[in-house]
Amino acid sequence: METLEEEIKIQHFTEWLQANKVELRGCKIKYCGPNKGFGLFSSSQNSASPILLVVPLDLSITPMSVLQDPSLGLKCRAMFEQGEVDDRFLMILFLTVERLRKNSLWKPYIDMLPVTFGNPLWFNEDEILELKGTTLYKATQMQKKKLEGLCEEKVKDLVMEILDGEAERANSIFWTRALNIPFPHSYVFPKTSEEENCSVPLDAEGGIITSEVSPPSVDENGSHGCELASGVGANAVNSAQGESVWVEGLIPGIDFCNHVIKSTTTWEVDSLGLTTGVPASMYLLSAEQGTIRNEEEICISYGDKGNEELLYLYGFVIDDNPDDYLMVHYPVEAIQSVPFADSKAQLLEVQKGEMRCLLPRNLLERGFFSDSSPQNEDSVQRGHDRMCSFSWSGQRKIPSYLNKLVFPEEFLTSLRTIAMNEEELLKVSSLLEELVGNEEEKQPSDTEVKAAIWEVCGDSGALQLLVDLLQTK
């Protein structure tokens, strides 16, 4: 039940949204409790329309909007262009400053954001120790160290008087609320005065992009179409004016949607306003509007994520999560301590070996061996790929468990290489020298290296190393 303080926050935020031309067409904001904070709920208003909420893209918090900020823009641009901070940190810094800035224009929105989080950055020492042995433990330690370093080395002098103790909160706000948004190309890379005379046709779809399209990675550098967005972590799908550039950002209102595994609500971007009547906007769309009851919470899916990833990013886990997985990981840095590390590292590079594997929950229902031979196309292909590794002289038989073991061949290849002793390494070298012969410039292929290692070592050392990794985990 909402307290008076929460009711006042919701009222101020709703008025702020309306003042910024946000349209609450079929939803309202309510308090969900201390663990979930605020959320979106359906309302009887305009219940016939599948469009629940429309937010102008001008209200989004993105790297471009931070670089345009009157007080932070110039200083952030200098750090960004010199490579001292990335586009994500620009938004984290912006959230930090706006929360502590007096009379911030973003205050009604900032006041609605959580002050504590359930992700491991906020764990106490005893809780952190319970993560030991997982990849999440190391990731949390690295994230803490990175945040401390960024605050101390990059931005402390910039906002020293207001940053103390706030970086972790702003970081958590960003990671729990940011979306990867397909902005209209013209929105991120506006035309210059010279380009105004040149007409570029729009795409046939009117520039409307749905959230179900798989975006490119936001870690790659974007196009250098204008000075403002130059270098920002955005990817142009095409250079045409009517198409899209993926940019990470926060959308006030839509970012109050909580997670559900199977959702009938999605968000979409309407470049021209053909769907919503609001050009350059993002909106929530219900695929089953007629079945939504009044006062029912409106949720979206954050993606098919396992519990480790959900806890790291968002601070919660799901009981019996169908998307959960087991990660088995051999630390790259640990290779330096194994015998003949340099030789093994070269062999791993040639084989393109994987140092970790993700095993989905449904794959592990019968343990580490599947219940039957592969039937689908992907499984058949995996079996074919493994067959290629057992074709040297035929002296070592193809293993009977070839089509049943759930661990990927690329991962077992790495473990075979790492587990080799001196005698096995010499035998592998001898086989490869025999293959190359007197042709000094010829190099064995990855398949040939895999086959030689299998011929000499089999799976004994790899499976023992695998047992050690699982026991450690």
From TrEMBL:
GO molecular function: protein-lysine N-methyltransferase activity
Entries under InterPro entries matching the protein: SET_dom_sf, SETD3_SETD6_MTase
Secretion signal span: none
Domain of life: Eukaryota
Protein name: SET domain-containing protein
Organism: Papaver somniferum
Taxonomic lineage of the native organism: Eukaryota, Viridiplantae, Streptophyta, Embryophyta, Tracheophyta
